[in-house]
Amino acid sequence: MFDLVDPFIGTAATDLPQPHGIAASWWWPKPQVGNTHPGATYPFGMVSACAYSGAYPTGYGIYELGTEGLPVPMADRMRVSGFTHFQQSGTGAIRKYYNYFRVTPMLSTLDDLGTAWQVRNEYAEPGYYRAELETGIVCEITVGPKSAVHRYTFPESRDARLVVDFSTGGLAIPYGETTPLRAHLEFLRQGSARGEVVMEGAPLAVHLECDASDFRQVLWYDRRIMPGGSRLDFADIRPTTLRPFGLMWAGPSVAGQTVELRMGFSLRGTEQAKVNLAADTGNLVGGFHARRQQTQDVWRDHLSQITVSTPDQDQGTVMATALYHSLMKPCFAKDESPFWPTNGPFVYDLCTMWDIYKTQLPLMTLLRPKRAVDLANALLKICEEEGNFPIGYRMAKGADRFSRQGSALAHTLFADLCQLRMPGVDWDRAVVHMHADLRRTYGEEYLRDGITHPISHVLDLAFGYWCAAVVADSIDDQALVADLAPWAAGWPAAFDPDTGLMAKSTFYEGGPWNYSFRLLHDMAARIKVAGGEDRFVELLDRFFGYGAPAVVQPGLRPGRDELERGYELGRFEGMNNEPDMEAPWAYHYAGRPDRTAEVVHAAVHQMFGTGPGGLAGNDDSGAISSWYVWASLGLFPVAGQNLVLLHPPAFEEAEIRTAESEIFLRTSGFRAPSRDTAPQYIQSVRLNGVEVPQTWLSMSDLHRGGELHITLGDTPSDWGSSLRPPSRPSVGAIALATGVTK
Fold first, then answer.
1. pLDDT digits (tens, 9 = 90+) for 633-674
2. Which spans in 588-652 are helix H?
3. Cβ atoms within 10 A of the Cβ of 591, count?
4. CA–CA–CA angle 121, 615, 68 (5° rounding)
5. Which of 501, 657, 700, 711 satisfies CB 3.0 to 4.6 Å to 305 for a cystine?
6. What is the pLDDT of residue 175?
7. pTM confidence score
8. pLDDT tens digits along 225-241
9. For residue 736, how many other CB atoms are within 10 A of its CB?
């Protein structure tokens, strides 16, 4: 899979072929661009590094700030002013941006610092990025878990320079820049330096080693060299007083001369940054090549956990890249929290739980369960120290503006880990914080009034109570289970029984239709609210556009009227955004897995493609990509409920390697699918030779491994039509429904 990854997928405006069938009726409210970057990354690592143009939202690319419609170009081609660190991955407007410690190779004076040069011959693979500037300098970057290694190949020049700017951060768009508050930097000896910058509340330290022994090293301030000094200190910087500052190695170069710059990072000071750099590079023989190879080996291991059989290389590239994007975030930085003194798991770039909790976190739990446990413990520590579980959590500090997106989303991760009996979490500790978190912000209104707005939070909170009850039941705290149960049953307040849809309210990036088909813990009762199974299927058919005309997508800088008309369509967002990403599987609960097969087929084969424009919308830290991984394998997790729903896979064969087992996915009657073929339908399923008459398995079944064999045909069958996935109005139904025993 490693060799099929294309890190450039999602870096440019969507250019997928014109959709047809039901997919033509889906409406895209969010920017039509993946917002990814092709820079060097490490699986769940602390550092990413890429060419810096200052564009929205990662710092790579050519687009201005945009939150709806077509992305707006700020330039006609890629021009970069250097190479920065800590880029986001596929996000939208997250308010805080990184791009710290810009490294700029130059052949001219500091007066030209900030000049944007055209980029040529870009190349990227997992863990490695390469580009050539129009100046003729070849630039290469690789990363380790807590480090970046740069290598620059200079042409012949009398004045080659490698400049590190400590004062930059953010984006080159209006209100996108960041200003350091405090900073210090110093040279330690020839080729060695260190420094720390407090940027957006985060004290980020760096230790640098440069092998340009024949270059002189100098500090600079306001684009002027500071002769004779070895240290700069800034105690109180303000935007009005900020002048750029940093350090530099400079001297004449011969054609083909390479300069390697190694940078270790830490949120706990320069000494720890030095330790981190030594851990990442100190024992490697071969410098840049060795670090690149080791990171490549780690990526190969991660990406080899899923293999698929397909004669279509483009389909393989989409799958491999989706898996790659799913394994980049969040950033794990063990023992690095700058906000409390104790060691242990620390995580950032949860951007955001609202995006990743349904698909990306279940995929992490399946493939890398120890990472999922580390994340759970990091979330517990954040809750203890800061008072609540975050919806979004960044290295940069600032008010959590994402609280409007959702409530109690971390609870789904804890419920999944608990039902899977994952070791390493103190469940007595966890349930205390899960319970307390449910009583904050929107939870207070829910407790007082039985409802809150945006009304989608009612579903979040009710399910959060159910998840907390799962954990309470696991430690046999039946009194707490009884206390939580009424609130877990409070979700009907979010629905209008006259329409069968969500009640009137405000909604985040959607409307009542987009939130009406969430996979609740009591779908049987939910369907009754809609008026029964036939009426529920009618609503779903309308939502997915059966029989509807094609829509016109938002254009450049769409106005409010245009967007409101789009939302009024009440249509599936077609993998352009996350709020309804699980809705295709709601059909299972009404006995229509054939409809799921049709919708998922259209989404998998029309909403994803190769090339920079291959994503329909923001990838959002792997949320959309992980959806593709699950959907193309014929599996879909119901987050928090220990359930996996089944549908026709996009591959004839696939293998999933988990921490302790292997899952072999096999088919009979498979016909290679494409965007222009009709869907296939499941005729029968066998797990380890035993017939599976229902449309679901437990996630525990996947973790145990074995062979899942799916027989496919070209017409719908009665498979799964008489059985319904479990509905769980009470926690006591868990063991019976999933086969999990305590």
1. 999 999 999 999 999 999 999 999 998 899 999 999 999 999
2. 593-606, 623-633
3. 17
4. 110
5. 657
6. 85
7. 0.96
8. 998 889 999 999 998 88
9. 11
d(CA 125, CA 481): 49
Q: What is the pLDDT of residue 282?
A: 85
**% helix / strand / coil in the chain, to the nearest 5?**
30, 25, 45
Write the CA distances from 460 to 133, 162, 338, 580, integer angstroms. Answer: 49, 50, 31, 14
What's the CA gap between 270 and 155, in Å, rounded?
33
Segment 127-152 shows an average pLDDT of: 98
In terms of DSSP bridges, do strands 100-106 and 157-165 run parallel, antiparallel, or are they unpaired?
antiparallel
Domain ranges in the chain? 31-302
DSSP collapsed to 3 states, 212-256: CCCCEEEEEECCEEECCCCEEEECCCCCCCCCCEEEEEEEEECCC
Q: Which residues contact 662 (CB under 8 A, 6 or more apart)?
A: 655, 656, 705
CATH topology of domain 31-302: Beta-galactosidase; Chain A, domain 5 (2.70.98)
Which residues fall within 8 angstroms of residue 733, CB to CB, at 6 or more apart? 726, 727
Is the dihedral angle over the CA atoms 639, 644, 645, 649 positive or is it negative? positive
Q: What token pair was written down for 144?
A: 């380790």
Binning pLDDT at 50, 70 and 90, where does residue 95 land? low
Question: What is d(CA 599, CA 372) in angstroms, rounded to the nearest whole number?
Answer: 30
The set of residues, in sequence order, having a beta carbon less than 8 Å from that of 478 and lying 6+ positions away, is 472
